[in-house]
């Protein structure tokens, strides 16, 4: 099967700070790929390069058979309609209500009549389990609800690919399970391809078909969850263990 | 010198943003609702500060001219000078400086917060254009609101001048009014209003440019706000000088 998205030899630096020397990664249709890696290694940057929010310095990023690194800003529209992003920070429009946040892309792309859009808003809010939150402002929402609203806004236009930037970070176990469940059901019910950036090993092992690990400015490893469990690389093992056992009770600094 | 070298590419980027804004205006549909909101929000809520500035400026000018012209027995001409000074210079410039400081820093803070919380990126990610959504309505609102406020300032400024002139010089309001009508030509009004149209554009574009390019979290928003006040004032003062030279060269 051909990849739906592929990064080839992507380089990216911010001034003197090199984030990627050579990022190469394939994502296949219908799969859920998680990306793990330390803080500041460039996970968010990778997602943003795919939809053109940041520009790669070199290399190619092919999405749906088209090299997006060659596109001008205004040519990104088709890609951005097919690839939705759930931002790490939420990036909710805080001057708008929950319903208006979800309607934003619908309005922009003339999704339908006002009534159809209202119905779509209800539908996606139902999907993320916030049916009565329509008229609230983002500031009135809890962390878990903010993440779910971000997801609702992202799926409103029925994208084919969803990029999740740390969808469960900072949430309680119930919300984590709920978000993981949504990622899984979107894949099952709608055959959506997902790239999930996360630090949470439970999320990794719950939702992934494959896992990619960022290390030293490249994709150091990509494979199934089984492969990653059995990987001989010590940094991978450390990372997996770190996700689970970081808070051992005998640690003196705690 | 090195500061100048940093400034030039910045001016270039403001020019690019201006072109994008212009393109957003000519490419339909123009979104009326955000435009009207911005005119009301940014412009019309500044009328009280405009009135306050204008009336005191008109009064103080009249005081100065009345006493200054007195030794030459020319204090009768106070009205002429007040009217010319206000309509050509102080009306447009003071209005722009005050309203610009208020409105431009508001844009910088608002768009700056949106930029650092990734809301500007989110607009792009959702397939919309931040220039069309955020910048264009604000710039257009300023281009409309600042000349309107300037006309208000001209009117109130002359009124302030009249109060003082009638008291200090002893002319009748009617005389003052007639004097203004005899003094001011359409060119003077155009001169002042043309400047204020440009000032409106400058206020909008500088505030939005600074705001939308904000980085560095909450601290960055604070810095952007301060920077926009200084940048707006400098832009207004320099462009006022250049525009005045231009207009005087055109019709003296
Ligand atoms: N717009 C930007 N301008 C300058 N530097 C940036 C920018 N975006 C990211 N960086 C830098 O690139 C590096 C990678 O950032 P990125 O946000 O992708 O990390 P991350 O892997 O997502 O980390 P985290 O897990 O903390 O979210 C960081 O050092 C960051 O400072
Ligand atoms: Mg990140």
What does this protein structure show overall?
The complex is a heterodimer of chains A (254) and B (252). Chain A is of the alpha/beta class. Chain A is built from nine helices and ten strands. A six-stranded mixed beta sheet of chain A has the order 6-7-8-3-9-10, with helices on both faces. Chain A has a four-stranded antiparallel beta sheet with strand order 2-1-4-5, covered by helices on one side. In chain A, helix 3 packs parallel to helix 5 and helix 4 packs across helix 5 (143-155). Chain B has nine helices and no strands. Chain B has helices at residues 2-26, 32-43, 47-69, 78-116, 119-125, 130-168, 173-183, 186-212, 217-251. In chain B, helix 1 (2-26) packs across helix 6 (130-168) and helix 4 runs antiparallel to helix 6 (130-168). The model of chain B has no long low-confidence stretch (mean pLDDT 91). The A-B interface holds A 48, 51-53, 73-74, 76-77, 80-81, 84-85, 87-89, 91-94, 104-105, 108-109, 153, 157 and B 117-119, 121-122, 124-129. Residues 43-44, 88, 165 of chain A line the site of magnesium ion.
